[in-house]
Amino acid sequence: MEKSIGVIGLGRCGLPVAENFVKAGYRVYGYARRPEVIAEFKNLGGQHVGSPSGVAQKAGTIIVIALNDEQVMEVVAGPNGILESAAPGSTVICMSTINRENLEWVNKKCTEKKVKLVDCPFTGGPARITLGTLTLIVAAPADLLEEVKPLLEIIGNITLVGDTPGMGQAVKHCNQLLVTAIHAATIELMLLAEKTGVDPKLVCDVVGSGIGGNDYFRLLSKAVLNNENSPGGMGQLWKDVNICLTSARAHNLPLLVTVATAQYFNMAVA
What we know:
This protein has 270 residues and is an alpha/beta fold. The protein folds into 2 domains: 4-164, 3-Layer(aba) Sandwich (Rossmann fold), CATH 3.40.50.720; 170-269, N-(1-d-carboxylethyl)-l-norvaline Dehydrogenase, domain 2, CATH 1.10.1040. 54% of the residues lie in helices and 14% in strands. It has helices at residues 14-23, 35-43, 52-58, 69-77, 100-112, 126-131, 142-152, 167-195, 200-208, 215-225, 234-250, 256-269, and strands at 4-8, 27-31, 47-48, 61-64, 91-94, 116-119, 122-123, 134-139, 156-162. It has a 6-stranded parallel β-sheet, with helices on both faces. A 3-stranded mixed β-sheet has the order 7-8-9. Strand 5, helix 5 (100-112) and strand 6 form a beta-alpha-beta unit. The longest helix is centred in the last third of the chain and has 29 residues, at 167-195. It starts with a strand and ends with a helix.
């Protein structure tokens, strides 16, 4: 029997996810809006469908890796969305990073249609997707996890953080709080080095090999020194740090460093 899967959101991470499944022998149905993305998806062996609803007619398991809250809610529960045609028992795997309450809303809509939802944000970029080494932050009931485990292992390593959708998002938000702070501090470190007459590359080499070094610092500092794009994507990081603040405010938690980090990203994307 032919294996099939849907992928909605064929961006910088969605395309390599789709490609991994093509290479694993799956028939991959996808949806995107931009003609150049559709062409690239077809070139790697995917089959483009005209709407999320159309993808749900072709595949019983659909990965959603859309850009933001609004897109996730639209492609799942909006007009021509997945839930318009998904059969009872179908599964949606949400790999996007969004506000927890919006993920819980999506889960509620799925439950009403007897569609299962796996909360599965991730850490790691396109290169780690291609290698199949993403860290997948999964929240799902044990029986559902067993169903999707063979699929998820094609793109990464599973870390189960809970059995209720929304818990994966909560863990990812904590991760992004740290990533965005490291990003802002790295830029300031390089500015301070330059202004004090020290070679920024030398400083980054020292920091990167010591206790202050980490994977994201090394990736970002290398990108800045080589005049390359940020590994995280400024727009995505801006979105994520503001999600962290929304969560903190909901719990009356003053996160002073995160507030300052958000101000940095607000200025950077203005």
